Amino acid sequence: MSQEQVVTVVAPVPISADVHAPVINLWKPPEEEQSAPLWLITFADIMALSLTFFVMLYAMSNPKQDKFDDMSRALQTGLSEQSGQRNASGAQDAIQLMAADYGSALNLRYLMTMLEESRARDTRLASVVPRLTDQGLVLSLPLETLFASQGQEISIEGQKVLYALVEQLARVHNRVEIISTDAEREQAYKQSIELAAALSKLGYDKEPILRAIVDPEKSTLEIWIMPDDGKLRGFLRLGS
Fold it and tell me: In terms of DSSP bridges, do strands 176-182 and 220-225 run parallel, antiparallel, or are they unpaired?
């Protein structure tokens, strides 16, 4: 029994003009750059504004000039020390100057000249009489101008005088004492305390020493500017 072989003939299918082959698109659009998130932009703006704010605060602030001057002098003293060679040093019993520092006190004659020039320019200081003594520079204040009456309140005219005086004392680093003289000790203390409080209220940031003297023959109120700044600066040491 023979097997029949079946042959399938596939005729080619004609391609018409309306049929097109599929087109594969290989072009890809460029990826978009990733931008910073919105919260980061806001945070950067806040940081920039905060920095500007604190810089302006620092620029408008008043630094403590006394501490800055002390730091400058300490650095200058420490960096300017000189030392010779070991074999060139003197005997051990020689006099040695240890940490000689004359402080920040100004010369009293210079202060006297400065006050005289200020009195010539400012009429508010005309009633303040300065005089130079061996102990210090004395500024005599007019009681009838400072105090309106027998009370302890500073008058308006007295405040004008003290305000002009504070402008001069703010530049001085010398030790300052307020000495009040009166027939009654309590009255003398009240006047010195009231003057110190008025100076502090008007911007004088140092603490003066208050003294009261009992004298039945006179009543005065004086500001003493001493030749030192009231600080222990150094010492002289003698070798044994």
Answer: antiparallel
Positive/negative CA dihedral, 199, 203, 204, 205: positive
Torsion of CA 121, 144, 140, 168, to 10 degrees: -40
What tokens appear for 238 in the block?
Answer: 């003698």
pLDDT band of 177, cuts 50, 70, 90: very high
What would the CATH number be for the domain defined by 108-225?
3.30.1330.60
- Round to whole Å and give the CA distance between 42 and 53: 17
Distance CA 85, CA 94 (A): 16
Distance (Å, whole) CA 206 – CA 221: 19
Q: Which residues contact 141 (CB under 8 A, 6 or more apart)?
A: 127, 128, 161, 195, 221, 222, 223
Higher pLDDT: 16 or 201? It is 201
Q: Which residue is it, tokens 């072989």? A: 5
Model-level pTM? 0.55
pLDDT tens, residue by residue, 45-84: 999 999 999 998 888 776 666 676 777 767 766 655 444 4
Close Cβ partners of 206 (under 8 Å, ≥ 6 residues apart) = 169, 176
- DSSP state, residue 154: B
Count other C-beta atoms under 10 Å from residue 146's C-beta.
21
Rounded to the nearest 5°, which phi and psi values hold at 109? Answer: -65, -40
- For the chain, the domains span 108-225
Task: Name residue 126's amino acid.
Answer: A
Return phi, psi of residue 69, to 5°.
-65, -40
> Rounded to the nearest 5°, which phi and psi values hold at 235?
-155, 160
